[in-house]
Amino acid sequence: MHPLNKNRPLRRITLASAATVSGMVMLLALKPHTAPTVVTDSAAPAPSSSASAASGGSGSGTGTGTKTVTGDTAQTRWGPVQVRVTVRSGKITDVTALQYPQDNPRDQQINSYALPQLRSEALAAQSAQIDTVSGATYTSEGYQQSLQSALDSAGL
Fold first, then answer.
1. CATH 3.90.1010.20 residue ranges in the chain?
2. Is the pLDDT of residue 62 over 70?
């Protein structure tokens, strides 16, 4: 006899209930990617600001001053990416990631190795023309976009 025979309605009810419960458990086990948290450095300008702040020597005309410029926020699939660049005498001396995806352990794991690589690439290349870090494609692309925005604002 077939297990779902009409002569055995209790068996059909039991199987249907078990299937429904199993489906609900699997559905509830899925965890969606939550909204990214925004991380900003308290000493940094407001995230939406892309204005440059000159300090040190004369910033107008001589090129010897130090500028700290915050790039535009690049929206990626996993969250925003934003960098701050320090330029001294026309050379990039520091790149700091202000915002990056870190809402879940996987994001934290990826960015813990990707951001230092992206920083060293930017310092070595002295431009936003840097390689994408394998496994961190979206973060790398957002980093490049924000870095280019900051360099454009700094006049490089």
1. 52-154
2. no
